[in-house]
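Schema walkthrough. Field components (list of strings):
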Amino acid sequence: MRRLSNRAFTHAALIVVGAAVLVPVIWVIAAGFRTQISLLTGEFLFTPVMSNFAEVLFSKTSDFLVNYRNSLIVGIASTVLCLTIATLAAWSLARLDWPRWVVHVFLGWALLFQMLPPLALASAWYTLVRSIGLQNSFAGLILAHTVLNLPMALWLMGVFVREVPLELEEAARIDGASTAVLLRHIILPLVAPGLAACAILTFVFSWNEFAVALNLTMKQTATVPVAIAKFAQDFEIRYTQMAAAAALSILPALVLLLIGQRFIVRGLTQGAIK
Amino acid sequence: MKQAGALSRWATFGPALFVMLALGALPLANLVYTSFHTVTWSGGQATFSWAGLAHYRALPADPLLRAGFFNTIVFAVFAVGGQMLLGFTLALLCSRVRRGRVLYRALFILPILIPGIVIGAIWKLMLNFDFGLINQITDLAGIEARNWLGDKETALASVIAVDIWHWTPFCFLLLLAGLESLPQDPYEAAKIDGASWWQELRYITLPLMAPAIMVTFAFRLVIAFKVFDEIYLLTGGGPGTATEVLSFTLYQRFFTEDRAGYGSAMAIAIIFLCSLLLVAALSVRRRPETAA
Amino acid sequence: MATRRQTLAGMAAASLTLGRPIVGSAQAKMAPITVVINQSPWFDSFRKTVELYEKESGNKVELDVNPFAGSLEKQRNSVRAKQGQYDLLIMNSGWFAEMYFGGFVEALSDIDPGFKLDKDIFTLGDTVFFDPVKKTMAPGGKLMSMPISPLIPVLYYRGDLYKEAGLAAPQTFAELEANAKKFHKPPKMYGIVQRGARGPATVSFDFYPYLYGMGGSIFKNQAAGDYTVTLNSEQGRAALDYYIRLAREAGHPKTAAMDQADLIQNMVTGKTAHVMMVIAAWSQMDDPQKSAVVDKVEFAPTPHGPNLPTAPGLGHWLGGVARNVPDDRKRATVEFLRWYQTKAAQMATAQAGGIPVSAAPYREPIAQERRFRWMKAIAESLPHAVSTMNFPEAGEVIPILELGLNQAIAGEIAPVASLNSMAEQIHAVMAKYNYNTGTLPKLN
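Field assembly_structure (string):
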């Protein structure tokens, strides 16, 4: 009996919070289907229009589809790059017997770097990227996003990597496994839940990053946040078009999340089987 | 582990080291260098004139900075504290349910998927005095409509509330992943011993989760110190200086007023302050762990 | 040469009205240029004007469109590098002084000694001129830039309500106050909504027409390089007292929190009878998707004191040629600007819904059309437009005004104390940068 009411209470609490989370999100998405005046007068019932989405996707001054593609390229590439580097380094620092001072200094430096305001970084990187001639390519932005998210990825993967029991690794070593095999077949499956969470966050941060993307891109390489920021103009915030663009922009991360869920579940069952 | 050769060591650690040095050291060095100079432009060329510690000494006298200091600390403590608490609670609840976990996870993560500028713009509309959704709801509940973002008393609290809504998913996602990675053995042993859920929480979950909690907290705090997009659109630092935060002052001084030297000194000072706060917060947290 | 261009421009104008395709141009091909500009309500008309130029001349013009929040950053990056990415910089009133003083833009007359500003072009507070030696903006200086968009505030008022009450557009501040009070029936309708929020250029921009319209000013004489701070004069006091009184007796209860978006929102939802706002928002008033007061809003120059001219503050956009780009691109840019100032090009801008910088279109029948009824107010106001900050450190002065005005409107400090404090702080900034400055005795 107690189990049942406990579970009911849990679900009830989750649903209440879910509503508080969901209402503004639905409001944003709904705003994409409204006329501006309908939104400004705050009327509750409204007749939906498609003009905002049409304007965002197909108008002459809009490069939204191009921006979308750019954001996908930069997001996926920087996430893959960032997580690969971070996981390898995190495991290395935790398990490969580096001197303590190296570990502390490096991780400390990473954390310190995370505190730098994007404003200061953006102009320094622009100069750097310009001097190599990469200012209108994806390479500069991908590298920049990788570095921006690396400290957090490093620390987080450090936590998840340390949760893999030492005995497992030792057993694998005794069986003659090389580093590559060890990483791929033991470590990777066990850090999957953490890795998935980290991947989602890294992708989202890259997708939503504005300050650096603004500085390092031009028309052909601009990303979604730059496009969305154009709706916040000096004399008018085009709320409804911004909302439409925002509704479109949350799709990739949602898809990524749904895919990522599978890995998390798979990782759990594998861990249990061990 | 000593069996790993030098190749393995450098192959795994090398890339991270290279990236952080090549791309990370340059901006920081540039910032430090600039903070000791005053930069002026004429004829299309920049002149760096030595200023020593002048910029650093000018910082405490800056009126915006004084307001920003206080507001940022309040913001950081309440916003980040609130998010951690809420995120952890949600993660705990979520980890107990089997059915619908996928749905809940997708649901609770939504706010962080939305770009900061959109959050700022949309919440500004919702908190609008004349037409906002929030005042419409409070109207139904019989509470008087308030100018949430425009009144000194409620402005900072409103900004904190929006931030909690926006960033709790960050804490939730990471803490849930952390909970899901925990070994099951201690729990099974506890169940055999007949431990209550509170004892489970206090003596098993919290200590095991301590690293994940600390890292999530640390990064959330650091990111909170840099908050900009939302405040820019929600309140622009007003009313008066009620929501002036450090990153905003930095934007004003460094960028709008184009004072690169002074701005760099301010950025360095902010980093220093953030580190202090972080160390203070983490050392407070460490105590309960040793007690357990 | 000039005659041939005029003929072509005339042909273009004829083609526009007759709807026939434009005949191929025999002009020499110039280098393609890149323009850095921001997304805005008037951008669309600029884009169409540029397309017309491309069709006529065969020259290529690339538009790099940025969010407003990013325009300055990108321009700074480009001009400070060894080689610039952008040839034509569309500079906002907030930063053109930085570009002039820093030597980042080259004078049009230096690139093309024969370049003459069309006599019909509004010089917008003479901000198109700059003397690099004296560092002032007055007609004696070099021609540094071309006006692109002349944004000034005008008075938007509910013509339908005025008609009902049998009133004429207010000319003086006294009339504005009386009319606003007449329509003030909170909370359904406010007499007027003013800005009071602290922002990048929020309450101060709203305050300028009041200050200058009553004969006050921030500096004594910028054109002569005299930056004595005159904000805390009797006229300054009168202006601030009036502003606050208007807000209290006929305005929004939360004026201290109102910003641009709130003003527009109140106007389009029909909640206010008056608003003093930059002209760029005119297109929202008659758009049924954005407004509940379609065809009801009328426009007038901002009010003024008796026997004084209207004095709207400038929030305009100027086009300057970057110094750090190759010569052929500079010449191509000047060529574009030479075309842009012609009557035909300006007519095209007007037709596309933009705001012409030349007086010519305002004399044409187009200014009588119902949908362009704001043109009369603009044509009257532009010759009197005031540029409040002609120096690069404006970025340090504006926040002082923003904070001080915001606190006075919120009732946190007394108006006189606020004016004195702002004047003192502004003086400190000007002195720090070695301008010729001074102060008035304190107000009591």
